[in-house]
Every structure is written in C-alpha cells, then in structure tokens.
Amino acid sequence: MSHVRFDIRNYMAITAILMVLVMTVLDVTLVNVSLPVLAVELGISDSMTVWIVTVYQLVITMLLLPLSSAGDLFSYRRNFLTGVVIFTAASVLCAMSQSFTAIVISRGIQGIGAACVMSVNIALTRLIYPREILGRGMALNAMVIAVATAAGPTIAGAILAVASWHWLFLINIPFGVVAFLIGKRLLPANPPREHKVRFDRVSAVENVIVFGLVFYSLGTFARNGDTATGIILLAVGLVTGAFYIRRQLGREQPMFPVDLFRIPLFSLSIATSVCSFIAQNLVMISLPFLFLNNFGFSEITTGLLMTPLPLATMIVSPLAARFVEGHNPGLTAAVGMGVYACGVILISLLGDSSATEWQVVWRMALCGIGFGMFQTPNNVVMVLATPLKRTGGAGGMQSTARLVGQTLGATLVTLLFAVALPGWAIHACLFVAVGMSVIAGVLSLSRIGRIKTTQKK
Q1: Other C-beta atoms within 10 Å of 109: how many?
Q2: Contact at 8 Å (CB) between 346 and 364?
Q3: How many CB atoms lie within 10 A of CB 56?
Q4: Average pLDDT in the 329-358 region?
Q5: Is the dihedral of CA 22, 24, 29, 30 positive or negative?
Q6: pLDDT grade for 369, boundaries at 50, 70 and 90
Q7: What does DSSP assign to residue 163?
Q8: What is the dihedral of CA 266, 272, 276, 279, to 10 degrees?
Q9: Using an 8 Å Cβ cutoff, are 240 and 230 in contact?
C-alpha cells in the first residue's frame, strides 16, 4: 500500500475538484441563510424566496444523468471545465441581479454549472486515485461536503455582517478561476473507448421531464400547494418515466443506468444510499423543532447543536476509508447504520424538559460517527461495482440517489407533521428514520458475500 504512486500533479488535480465541490455545496447553505435578507432587499414574501433555493436544486436533479452520460461518451474533463465556467459566470449574474426574476434565472443557470461538475466528480476522482486508495478519495469528498455544510451558516453570517448579500456570490469568482486553470492543465482524459456511441437526445429530454415533474410535484405537496396540480404533474412524470425506462432497456449505454442496475452489488448500494439519506433528512429537518419547541433551546443554541453530526461525519469518513482498504466495506457500512440508528433512538428517549446541551451533543456526534462509517464504504462499493467506462453514469446515479433520498425525507417530514397526533410528529419522524436506518443496514449486510467475490476477482 505504501508504494502506491500519487504525486503533486494528482494532488493539484484533486484540489481543483474539491474547490469546485466546496463552491457548489457552500452556495446552497449561504443562500439559505440569506433568504430573509433577500426577501427584504427584493421586496418579496418569505415563501417566494424559497424558489431561489428550489430552482437550483431542481435544475441539478433534472440534468445529472444526461450530463453523466455525456461525460461517459465524450469527456469528464470537458464537462467539469464547462461547469466551472457556467457556475462562475452565473455567480456574477446572481450578484448583479436587481429583481426576483433575474436572480431566479441566474440561480437556474448556476444549477446547470453545478450539475456539470457533480455529474463527473466521482468519475474524475476514480481516474485520479489508484484503486487501492480510492476510498481515501471518496472520504475526502465526503469530508469536504461535511465541512462546507457545517461551516456555511458561520461564513454567511460573517459576510452579511460586513458586506451586502451580493458578496455571497462574488466570493465564487476567484475560486472558479483558479479551479479552471488547474483543471484545464491537470485533469485526466477519459479512458480510450473501443467504439463511439451517440448521445441519446430523446432520452435526455425524457429524463428532464421525468425528474422535473416528479420533484416539482413532490415540492408542491411539501409546500401545501395546489394538490390537484401536483397530482396531475406527478402522473405525467410517472407515465413519461415508463416510456423513458422502456427506451433505456434497448440501449448499449443507457442514460438511466439500467445496465448498472443489473449488477446486484450496484443495485443494493443505490437502494442503501436512498434509505440512508431518507433517514438523514428526517432527522436533520425534524430535530430543530425538537430542540426549539420541546427542549426550549434558543435559535443560536439549536444551530450549534446541529453541528456535531456533520462534524463527526467529517472526522470519521477518512478513518473509515482507510479501514475498508483491508476490511469488508459492506459490514462497515452496516455497522455504521446501526450506530446511526442507536444515536437517533437515544435522542428520542431524552425527556423534553430535562435535556441538557451536553446530552444532545454526544448523541448527535454518535449519529455523525455512524453516518461517517456508512457513507464512504457505501460509495466505494457502489463505484467499484461498475465498469470503468461507466463511472460517469455510476457517479450521476450516486448523486441522484442522494437527492431522491433527501427529497423523500423532506416530503415524509411534511406528511408526518400533517397526520401525526399533536406532540408526536417529531417522534414519528425519528421512529421512521430509525426504520430506514435498519433497512439500510440490512441491505448493507446482504452485500458482504458479493463484495468478497468481487474482491477476489
């Protein structure tokens, strides 16, 4: 293991990827914190400002798989560099926006750039890192995402304390320029292909329609919008989805990776990932209500108490990556989900009036330790289960699974808050989160034998 070659060019290439990853993840958190300010500055309601966040995430979800397919067929490097240019230019447009319409359009363009980068992030990481230490690369990605997520509110608050909201977008420019220059010089080219496959434009359009309508309709339900319209959009999306999947079945390199889903290890890993992010979002959305309303903590204390989970994930992820280099990642991921479930159970058992900050902190850290033990091993299994030429599709599906899990988690919170008995909504969310964690753990355990077989080959 110590003889694995990894020189300064590799480190610089990874730096470019991580810089842009920080930009795309941090951008969500920065904008979330600035929404009240934007509502006042642009003269719009609080509910309208949510579109500034929603349009960004919706565009990413709609474009991830088409852009992953384009990366597989043409160039991961070109996708990445194009995404950096679009995201950086759109950041300038966001900063220059003088109206709600202008900033929503600019955020949509930003989403296109972020989707370009996210669609090939895993593929480029796999090309840069030798197979023996790929887990460390995946862990570094997870750690950077955790750091950006945890640090976002503090950075946003510091910027808004000394400057206008425009600087939340302008800070992207120097990082974008540096990442582009490094990436253009050092990012690797795609592996050589045996024969050329044409990009499927029809499938791309179908993918955009399916994910756009399904996720928009779920958002409509979550916001208590027009239910009839939401049902119609969901039905149209699902019908289009049936035609979309049928089209993929006969293609050599399908956009929706039905070929990869024929690999049991990949299918199990995707299902495990969706369940885990449902569990994560159920906890992350419902706990602030528990801390504020039931435990009586202040807003500032509540924000601080949410930090140990991503912080512990950040610390444990690289340790888990090194551990699975010599141990079965399926078992490690299963244990991680078990630890996460234990942390959620312990939080749910706290008495409403007697809970102290320390009692919450170590339980939140336990959840973060469990998720850190799970996330990197699961991602490693998912990627290594696929052929090298389909890494873009695997990475795109990995990100899609995360977004699907997070969206379903948010929708479940809304549903449980609406139907649960008074005073039991939060505990219902935590109970369902434990159930989804157990399912994810069982799915991870079912992969152990398959992983051993794969490693022997």
Answers
A1: 19
A2: no
A3: 26
A4: 88
A5: positive
A6: very high
A7: S
A8: 140
A9: no
